[in-house]
Amino acid sequence: MPPKLVFVLPIVLLGWAIQAILRPPPTKLCGSPGGPPLTSPRIKLRDGRYLAYREDGVQKDKARFKIITVHAFDSTKDFPLPVSKELVEELGIYLLAFDRAGYGESDPNPDRDVKSEALDIEELADQLELGQKFYVLGTSMGGYSVWGCLQYIPHRLSGAALVVPIINYWWPSFPAELSRQAFKKLVVPEQRTLWLAHHVPSLLYLWMTQRWLPSSAAAMHHPEIFSKHDMEVLQKMMAMPRTIENKSRQQGTSESIHRDLLVAFGSWEFDPMNITNPFSQNEGSVHIWQGYEDRLVLVELQRYISKKLPWIKYHEVPEGGHMFMLVDGWTDRIIKALLVGEEPSDV
Q1: pLDDT at 19 over 60
Q2: Does the keyword Phosphoprotein apply (predicted)?
């Protein structure tokens, strides 16, 4: 064998091996041979992808208020917003949930970013004929989709609510020391995961699938990420009959939870703290709801955002953790504040 080939061949083989390790397996598309079955209505987007959705509440043509809800990390549209039937009927609320790209029964989007999420929401609203304006409500990881709406389609919004919205520690407006100290409060596996997602995204798949060290605490549902209140919420939920199957990862993890981490904690095209008020005439409102005891999304950074954006109505729940909205009527209170301006007196 020629000397040059002896030297080059191992390098090429090593490169192929590394690529094979770093490259995620193909996505199991819903409705494809060997893939998960299709059980939900879907729309075809302009780029050819399909987006699955779910409608709840009053009939669309009779609704006074139309809300598009954006699900959290490792979740789907099939987990309905825990709003009371009485409030839905009293206010005439139509609810539209959808599987974000790569989740549930929606096709993946390898080019997914904050902007594409907002444009998916806009196209969903148009195809389902919601009208010129609608409300958006995003929970946890779904919060970055709402930030995208405020940046890219503010003219389509009647109002917006961000409930324990995820925070990117590398947003430029954060003081470096504040962001660093908050980041250090996260459990160590979460710190490592978010650091990789931001600085070395090509290694995230390998990190999330290796078994030697704990990776994302959120993906593994590690008990350290839950506050005392969160644990109480989980106990209540576990005592209830389980009727909904979580299909968030059924097409694979690389284009669902992994892609979510890459988008949320990667480099954004904009800094949310530079967004201008889309409702300068008070024709609508934007709300942030934050649990003081939240261990996943830290209160000190949320407070800083609210000071930088004083036009946002900031609500802090003293005993609340990351899951406070799931119990004690909090979702009703969040929706009342968004739709009719009824502010709770204790936050």
Answers
A1: no
A2: no
Mean pLDDT for the stretch of residues 9-24 = 52
Contact by Cβ (8 Å): 334, 325: yes
Q: Taking residues 187-201, what's their average pLDDT?
A: 93
Query: Whole-angstrom Cα distance, residue 9 to residue 325?
Result: 57
255 occurs within a structural domain: yes
- Cα–Cα separations (whole angstroms), residue 112 to 104, 263, 325: 15, 7, 27
Residue 7 lies in a domain: no
CB distance 230 to 322 below 8 Å: yes
- Residue closest to 332 by CA, chosen among 342, 347, 320: 342
State which residues form the domain around 53: 25-340
Give the residue-averaged pLDDT of 83-89.
Answer: 96
Q: What are the distances in angstroms from CA 85 to CA 76, 276, 331?
A: 21, 35, 12
**11-19: long-range contacts, CB 8 A cutoff, minimum separation 24:** none
Query: pTM here?
Result: 0.91
